[in-house]
Amino acid sequence: MKIRSLLVGLVAVGLSSVALAAEPIVIKFSHVVAQDTPKGKAAEKFKALAEEYTKGAVKVEVYANSTLYKDKEEMEALQLGAVQLLAPSLAKFGPLGVREFEVFDLPYIFDGYEALNKITQGAVGQQLLAKLEPKGIRGLAFWDNGFKSFSANSPIKKPEDLRGKKMRIQSSKVLEEQMREVKSLPQVMAFSEVYQALQTGVVDGTENPHSNLYTQKMHEVQKHMTLTDHGYLGYAVITNKKFWDGLPAEIRTQLDKAMVESTVYANQIAKEENDKSLEAVRASGKTEIHTPTAEEKAAFKKAFAPVHKKMESRIGAELIQSIYKETGFDPAKL
Ligand code: LMR
């Protein structure tokens, strides 16, 4: 009787064929940040919703904190089909050959979440995700994190304070140019290695949204931090196209629904999580937090302004212009 009513229930939600399979479909979701971050929490949300909506026909295994793969390996693993879901930072798609994603790294291009979401949740965002298809990757969503602050062991109140400093960056040519523009020395490094590199002095400083800095305890090894908000860090949730297309249609429908809902959740909690982390850094008393004056902020904007023009040939002038247009951004105001 119990089995019969279970069957009726499954047919009702359209999961009859797959849910009867003995083994659930396993989706490995690998990421590099702590569980207690916007991305970490959204991944857990997706797991809960996906398992609920498929009535257990899908099992999502979330691997946080680079426990399964680090930055570079995770992209390869996805293409090989060893992992099914990732949410890499938009600054990490260059090595894959999709340079356009680096447009998100242009300093000060987004004035805040509202301007940003016009792109990520609009037509330009969809066009960007489509660029992943020839690489065998399907882009499912954009998830927010937040706006970056610089940190180091000496104060960074003006662009000149970054001069000569070894700064850890993600693998983006735009970020590399950003740091070179102020004569600092950019060092590309996997996220999992940053804490130790800061602790041992392999690098002097870095840039992060507050949730990343705090949950990796970087504030314990960085005495100063400046709320420059000079750039954005967020994610594209991606899957192996062959895997996704090969899923039974009724399962895919439920997973798409779970993804839409976890995306709303991710983008709802991002700012709040970052604000909480900033307060936690402040409360720790380990890092001096500097809020730049209007003049100081203007000096950072001016110093980084040339990056937009210099990166045009890499990213595409048309794409950059379409973002300016959509968000109302005026590069002359930098
Ligand atoms: C970084 O490497 O700094 C970030 O991309 C980590 C992340 O996934 O937020």
From TrEMBL:
Organism: Thauera phenylacetica B4P
Sorted UniProt keywords: Signal, Transport
InterPro entries: DctP_fam, TRAP_DctP, TRAP_DctP_sf
Superkingdom of the organism of origin: Bacteria
rRNA processing in keyword set: no
Any one of the GO CC terms: outer membrane-bounded periplasmic space
Signal peptide coordinates: 1-21
Name of the protein this chain belongs to: TRAP dicarboxylate transporter subunit DctP
Family: Belongs to the bacterial solute-binding protein 7 family.
Gene Ontology biological process: C4-dicarboxylate transport; transmembrane transport
